[in-house]
Model the fold of this input.
Amino acid sequence: MKRFFPFALMILAACGSGGGSTVQLDPTISGQEARQFFGAETSASSGASEAIGFYSNGCLAGGMELPETGPTWQAMRLSRNRNWGHTELIDYIETLSANVAASTSWQGLYVGDMAQPRGGPMLTGHASHQSGIDVDIWMLPARDLSLTREDRENLSSISVRAQRGASVNENWTQEHAEVLRLAATDPRTARIFVTTGVKVWLCENVTGDRDWLSHIRPANGHHYHFHVRLECPAGDRNCQNQPLPQGDGCQEAYDRAARILNPPPPGPPDTTPPPAQPPRGMRVALQDVPNQCISLLSELN
Done:
């Protein structure tokens, strides 16, 4: 299917004073879901790495594949072909995993989803991870870095969630906190998403330097892994950052935990049928992705 997509795209020379090129889409495909096109790509585009657009509406030029196994990491779920990223993200993973191995009893990191070879919206699973500067790190301590491909398909991470996410369970350790500190104190880190209880634990237990806590943000669903989001790499002018809120974020976490433990009374039942469409971040049409992203697909023509 992939080989036929580019022939539906047309590159036209720009007429404006800015120069460069613009892409005009065949109107018969402009409204189709971008995930079908980007999800069909199996290799990176040529050239230097560049993060384009926003984390939830963008793409990756010149992506680099994280080696399946390194001295202090292993990439998991290889069948997904989501172990691609900006060269800055590859370096970040290599650096963080080495620091984790040197500072904890973990041998390194089990690395979950990064991006598709050319980024963009994924067929399943994520609204973000589109511009090559997001990575999921498993909460399961990496004790064995000789896992086979089959092992990496079948092994599961561990959950650190208790009380529906308001606190952490017995799987959570001080070393998890150290791994998060190492991840957050890298100057390239924009934010790290964790389950609410992890943020609450950190707010209640971290002493000394607490500046890095501002990068740790509570989010639903992040209890089997934590999600690192990097700042736009230097020089990537078409990349859009996500500004970090002011403050350490602890009160937000306390409020979230309180709502989990004492939810407000339910309102009247919603009888509206659910929409028959994929989640928000996966409904992006080709016509709505950054122009440079369409060019990545068309270069196969």
